[in-house]
Amino acid sequence: MDDPQLSQSLFGPRVRMAPSPTGYFHIGSARTALFNYLFARKNGGKFILRIEDTDKTRSKKEYEENILESLRWLKIYWDEGPDKEGEFGPYRQSERLDIYEKYLKQLLEEGKAYYCFCSREELEIQRQEMISRGMAPRYSGHCRNLPQSTINEYLKEGRKPVIRLKMPEKKIKFKDLIRGEIEVDLSLIGDVVIAKSLKEPLYNFSVVIDDYLMQITHVIRGEDHISNTPKQIVLQEALGFPRPIYAHLPMILGPDRSKLSKRHGAMAVTDYRKLGYLPEAIVNFLALLGWHPQEDNEILSLEEIIEKFDLKRVQKSGAIFNIKKLDWLNSQYIRQLGVDNLCSYFFEYVEKYSDYSHLLKKYDEEYFKKVIEIDLPRLTKLSDVFEIFDFFFKEKLDYSKEMLYWKEMTDLELKKSLNDSLEIIEKIKEEDFNKVNLQIKFYEFIEKEGAYQGNRGKLLWPLRVALSAKEASPGPFEIAEVLGKKETIKRIKFALEKIS
User: d(Cα 71, Cα 30) in Å, to the nearest integer?
Assistant: First the structure.
């Protein structure tokens, strides 16, 4: 069924995301989920979340919860899933073992699959022999035609076989919505294992059964699954199932075009959340990993991406994961949100995902708003509030005395500068202590005091360093307003102690 129109239900396409709960939800898996979600929403279909948890050893409940939480945070909502039952459930593979057993038995009874008793050692010998003869290693078919009496004898002895699918000796073609027609020679693959036992199905088998029973019309996944597709098509043919439409997304690569790794940004969605990225920026960034709209605009809301999304505009070549682009996008979303809206994200971030939750008790909401507002354009991530503006949350600053000096200042000039700042600030009333009045008073003083005319840095540089302990920061008046008069005076006096 290569025509997409033939594969759609009366209510539009049905697509799925089927992650394994064997680790935290990866950013690459999030991209796959997003593209499925976009396709479903654009075409009036359904997005199904299915948990592939048949790996009893590695599957954990905490990982499943992380998958669900990560998708919710990104606002990629599913129509059917483990917590949102539909008519095709259950949506956890561990709850569908009886279903898989039924179809495994059918294949065995029809002679389309068979028990294989070869040990690992025997398989390795077969493999090495093929390699030595210059052949691509594949299963030799040793157990393919065992008599039933031999099978019964082996089972009686307690041997534990796997179940292999009989692969036909032919070439198979399938249409990929992104890559066009793909042809594979099945004779090069050999008979593949589809289950460890009747109660232990493997991926290629269970995914075919689930996709059929859940009426999945389109399978949209990473190109690393292209090699699985012919095996799954053979299973579909053996069971008499219709073939879904396939679309294989480009691999995500690092800036050097190597496989995406942690050094490039291959992390869990939760890690990006902990770093202070906004979900809207992550979604926008992921959408542009392999797809682009007709227009040049790259800042797109989820609603706009859905409206513009088309699988025909998904590229075949690898998608480059550029963390600098993600940072830029995140900074744009931070600016667009404004202080009030950004703070709602910020307080949740601080409480759940940062190491600074204790500061929520020490400082009130208005203080945080002032800190964020002081230089919003400099923020790339929510974590920057504590990294760039860390001096707003410290009891005592740590910096070298040398940082206080403006150009070729002498010790006496530095001391006079700080004392002059202290005198100006002490004269300003508490209720008038803001950046506007501070600037007026300081500039009036500079006009009267000849030593600073034409060289305001002599007065303002030491003050700014004394308040921030940084060579690059917002202006001293903005910092002083946030700190308040009492803390500002305290920090200037600390600087004077350093040069005494």
Answer: 7
